[in-house]
Design a protein that fits this description.
- The structure is a single chain.
- This protein has 375 residues and is an alpha/beta fold.
- The chain has helices at residues 24-29, 40-56, 72-83, 97-108, 126-135, 157-166, 186-189, 215-220, 233-242, 252-268, 270-290, 317-325, 353-367, 370-373; strands at residues 13-14, 63-69, 89-94, 112-117, 141-145, 147-148, 153-154, 170-174, 193-197, 208-214, 306-310, 329-330, 332-333, 342-346.
- The strands form 4 sheets. The protein has a 7-stranded mixed sheet with strand order 2-10-9-8-5-3-4, sandwiched between helices.
- Helix 11 (270-290) runs parallel beside helix 13.
- It is globular, with a radius of gyration of 21 Å.
Length: 375
Amino acid sequence: MTDTNRPHTDRVVLMNPGPVMTDARVRSALAGPDLCHREPEFSDLLTRVRHKTTLAAGGDTRHTSVILTGSGTSAVEAAISSAVPADGGLLVIDNGHYGERFQHIADAHGIRTRRLELGWGTPVDPSAVGAALAADPGLTHVGLVHHETSSGMLNDVAALTRIAHEHGRELILDAVSSIGAERLSLAEDGVDWLAGSANKCLEGAPGLAFVSASRTAFERLAAAPRRSFYLDLHRHYTAQEKAAAPAFTPGIPAYYAFEAALDLALTEGQDARHARYSALALQLRAGLADLGLDLLLQHAHRAVALTAVRLPEHMSFDELYRGLRAEGFVIYGAQEQLAPGWFRLSTMGRMTTQDVDRFLAALSGLMHDDRMRHR
């Protein structure tokens, strides 16, 4: 009997938006030596990774980063729960699943919010953000997702940070699926709190997340409420900055891999990686259009790392997933309201033009398979 889950090739191409395919040097780094996290060797590794993370986030000598063992969501939650003061509030900019997640995180910590619910895939109007802030002086922070992975929408960080600052508020940015691929800079854009992940466009291994901000902002957290124990940013900052040590036991192999990935990202440079991702996305989108498939969003609003695609006619996501998985491709379903008719394709990680060509050929074959089309 044929195993339909076994790909026809040894190379499995991950087209899900993280974890991503990594460079061989990143995978090799995972096999680094066993190490106690209280030894000087780990202090040195932690210090290097923090510095390189800050550089990747476009920070300068005014900025630093705190590394967390956890997913990207842990960094977003740490930033929200630590930065918003006891008497403050959060304006949630919601144009997708992860914008809505800001609301859920704030609710879990009893933080007052106002939610600007725009609808999935709807561009953010900066004037509406300004009006919401003007109407509620008690909102101290704005929560924004840079790349809304539920739709592939790219929100304008610079414009919305500018609006927040004009009203005397701070911006908390979910850059989990954008940092490394999209133009983003702590120093140039003025982002107050940036939450990111090692295992998406920075192309590290899963297991680490981080929050980057100014040193002054981290120091001010000494007077902030302690809403969480493990995710208390001031606790992590104090341990990492003052003692060059982790507050809790870290995922040491992921640190080895993240340093290797950061070295590759900094050597390649943000502009070159953006160009590499852009070329893959354009190649993929042109091929999808040639197959007659509809894409979500207008070109100007699409991030370079993900494309939302309407399912081929007469084909369910499960059928498409199984057919492509057998050819060596992992695709991703859409979420919530888009789930019935759409799927998502990531071009993150160490994907190649040959991978994209092979994927389009496999997809075309499935779409023209009479067994699929007549179901």
